[in-house]
C-alpha cells in the first residue's frame, strides 16, 4: 500500500473497514491537502477494496475524518425564553450564507469528539460549557456521504441557562478565525425559523436528534 496509509486519518478509515470485514488490497493517493504543519487535512484516494461478500467496491474515497456538531439550546434566566444558538457563515460549496450549529473536525482528537464539540462551541460562539452540560444525541456517529467520504458526525446537545445580558449579547456577535478564512456571525433563533432558512442536512439532522432526545427525556420522567 501507499505510504499515505500511515496517516492517522487514513489508518482510522482502514481500521473501520477492517472491522466491517472489508478487505483493502491497495491504496493510492490521488491528491492531498495539508495544513501549514504538514499534517493531513484531506486526501482523495483510489483504492481496491473487496466487500465481505467478495464483491469489489467503488474505489474512490474522500478522506476527511470525523466531526462533531453541537446543538445548543439557550435559556434566558430572566425571561425563560429558549432559543437555539446558531452560527452563520458563507460556504464555498454553495456560495450562500448558511445557518449552522457549531461544529468542527476531529483531526488529531479522534478519540475525543465530546472535547471537540465543547471547544468548537467556545471558539465559534464564545459560550463556555463543562463536560457535565453536554449530552450525546445519538449512540453512534452518522455518515454524511457513505458512498464517497469517510466522514461521520457525532451529534451532541446542551441546554444552557444564561443571564439576560449574555443571552442578548449573542445576537449579531462576530466570531471566527480570519487566518483560516472563517467569518462567523452568531445569532439566536427559534426552531421554525431555522428550518425555514437552513440548507444544511447537518442542521436538520441536529434538530431531529435534539427533539427526539427531548421527547425521550420527557417520557422517562
Number of helices: 5
> Multimeric state of these chains?
single chain
Radius of gyration, CA atoms, in whole angstroms: 19 Å
The CATH homology group name of the largest domain: Nucleoside Triphosphate Pyrophosphohydrolase
Strand content: 35-45%
Structural class: alpha+beta
Tally of DSSP β-strands: 13
CATH architectural label of the largest domain: Alpha-Beta Complex
Mean pLDDT: 94
Largest sheet: 9 strands, mixed
Shape: globular
Unreliable spans are: none
Distance between the termini: 53 Å
CATH uppermost class of the largest domain: Alpha Beta
Describe this structure in words.
This protein is of the alpha+beta class and 221 residues long. It folds into two domains: 3-63; 67-220, Nucleoside Triphosphate Pyrophosphohydrolase, CATH 3.90.79. The protein has helices spanning 8-20, 113-125, 164-169, 191-197, 201-220, and strands at 23-34, 40-50, 56-57, 60-63, 67-76, 82-90, 97-100, 103-105, 134-136, 142-143, 152-162, 174-175, 184-189. The protein is globular and about 60 Å long. The termini are far apart.
Amino acid at each position: 500500500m501507499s505510504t499515505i496509509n500511515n496517516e492517522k486519518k487514513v489508518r482510522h478509515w482502514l481500521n473501520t473497514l477492517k472491522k466491517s470485514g472489508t478487505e483493502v488490497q491497495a491504496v493510492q493517493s490521488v491528491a492531498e491537502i495539508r495544513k501549514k504543519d504538514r499534517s493531513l487535512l484531506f486526501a482523495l484516494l483510489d483504492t481496491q477494496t473487496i466487500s465481505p461478500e467478495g464483491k469489489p467496491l467503488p474505489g474512490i474515497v474522500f478522506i476527511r475524518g470525523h466531526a462533531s456538531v453541537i446543538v445548543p439550546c439557550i435559556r434566558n434566566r430572566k425571561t425563560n425564553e429558549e432559543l437555539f444558538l446558531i452560527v452563520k457563515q458563507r460556504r464555498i460549496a454553495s456560495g450562500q450564507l448558511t445557518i449552522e450549529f457549531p461544529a468542527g473536525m476531529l483531526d488529531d482528537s479522534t478519540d475525543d469528539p465530546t472535547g471537540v464539540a465543547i471547544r468548537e462551541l467556545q471558539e465559534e460562539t464564545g459560550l463556555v460549557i463543562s463536560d457535565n452540560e453536554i449530552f450525546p444525541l445519538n449512540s453512534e456517529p452518522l455518515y454524511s456521504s457513505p458512498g464517497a467520504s469517510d466522514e461521520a458526525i457525532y451529534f451532541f446537545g446542551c441546554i444552557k441557562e444564561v443571564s439576560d445580558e449574555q443571552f442578548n449579547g449573542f445576537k449579531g456577535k462576530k466570531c471566527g478565525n480570519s487566518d483560516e478564512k472563517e467569518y462567523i456571525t452568531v445569532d439566536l433563533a427559534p426552531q421554525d425559523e431555522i428550518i425555514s432558512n437552513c440548507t444544511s442536512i447537518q442542521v436538520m439532522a441536529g434538530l431531529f436528534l435534539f427533539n427526539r432526545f427531548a421527547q425521550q427525556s420527557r417520557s422517562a420522567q
